[in-house]
Amino acid sequence: MTLPPADSELGKLMANLPRPGRLEWIGLRPRRDVPMDEVEHALAQAGAGLVGDRYTGGSGKRGITLIQAEHLPAIAALSGHDAVAPATLRRNLVVSGLPLIALKGRRFRIGEVLLEGTDECDPCSRMEAALGPGGFNAMRGHGGLCARILEGGTIRRGDPVVAIAD
Length: 166
What we know:
By secondary structure, this protein is α+β, with helices and mostly antiparallel strands. The protein has one domain: PK beta-barrel domain-like (M1 Pyruvate Kinase, Domain 3, Beta Barrel), CATH 2.40.33. The chain has 5 helices and 10 strands, in the order αββββααβββααβββ. The strands form 2 sheets. It has a 7-stranded mixed beta barrel. A hairpin with an 8-residue loop joins strand 1 (21-28) and strand 2. The longest helix is centred in the N-terminal third of the chain and has 7 residues, at 9-15. It holds the Pfam family MOSC. This is MOSC domain-containing protein. Residues 37-164 form the MOSC domain. InterPro entries: MoCF_Sase_C, MOSC_domain, Pyrv_Knase-like_insert_dom_sf.
C-alpha cells in the first residue's frame, strides 16, 4: 500500500494516532484444524512468523495476524453470540487502544518486535463453521491486519503497540 506523502494533509491525518495500543492476547496455530494455543509470550522471527505457529516460514507477508479487541463484541453481535473468544477467530494477536487499520502500510512495534502492516486480514470460509451461518459476513470489515516481521524478538501480553513515525 502506498501512503500519501507525510507532509500532505491526508498524510498528517493518517499518521496521527490518539495513543499507543496494548497487546491483550497471543495465540499460536500449531496446525490447521486444531485449537489455538493461548500463550503469555511468543518468539517472533524476522521474515517468518511466530515460533510454534503453522505460518512460520511462509511468505512473510502474513507472518503474523492481528485483530482489534474492540471489534470482538461487534463480531459477536453480528454473528448472534454473546461473546467471541479470540481463539475462535484464529488471529495471532489481539490488540486494543488504537485503530489497527491505521497501521496498514506502516511500521510499528509491539514490545521489541518491529512489524510492517501489509494488508487487511480478510475472513476465511472457516468462519462459517466457527461462528455459524453468516459468520463469514459477520467478520467482513473486522478481520484485522496481516503483518510481516522485520525485526524479531519476544512479544509479551501487555506490551505496548506503537506506530513508528515516518
